[in-house]
Amino acid sequence: TTFPDSFNNNLRLVGVAPGLWFDDTNANGYIFGTDQGRLWFGRESAGALTAYTMVMDAAGQVGIGTTTPTYKLEVGGTSRVSGDSYHGAGLYFGVTGDYTTMSGAAS
Q1: Counting runs of H as helices and runs of E as strands, what totals does the chain give?
Q2: In whole angstroms, what is the distance from residue 39 CA to residue 45 CA?
Q3: CA–CA separation, 50 vs 45, rounded Å?
Q4: E strands within 27-91?
Q5: Count of alpha carbons within 13 angstroms of residue 17, beta-carbon side
Q6: Whether the model pTM is above 0.70
Q7: Burial of 31 (0-12, 13-18, 19+ CB in 10 A)
Q8: How many CB atoms within 10 Å of residue 69?
Q9: What is the mean pLDDT of residues 5-12?
Q10: Most confident segment among 3-12, 41-50, 86-95
Q11: What is the phi/psi pair of residue 41, to 5°?
Q12: How does DSSP classify residue 81?
């Protein structure tokens, strides 16, 4: 069901698992939806969900390549970070000149 929201006339989608579908002419595309307290992005083909690509759960934890993140950001698979990466507990990966530094303890 769709209807204008009484607050700022926003569009609301209401249902068991409402979502927005973005298809090409061959019915292949992406879905932006919600279910079970999660917000997610997925791939679809011929009108059916084929894979979740990113999920954010009710606790604000984000999963890329996983549907059940257990950390603020959990990546299932290979990831790449361009630039420096910092960890609040003192773990640092970065490039300074021609060397890479690491300090702190990893868990």
Answers
A1: 0, 11
A2: 20
A3: 6
A4: 28-35, 38-45, 48-56, 62-64, 73-75, 85-86
A5: 10
A6: no
A7: buried
A8: 22
A9: 63
A10: 41-50
A11: -115, 145
A12: -
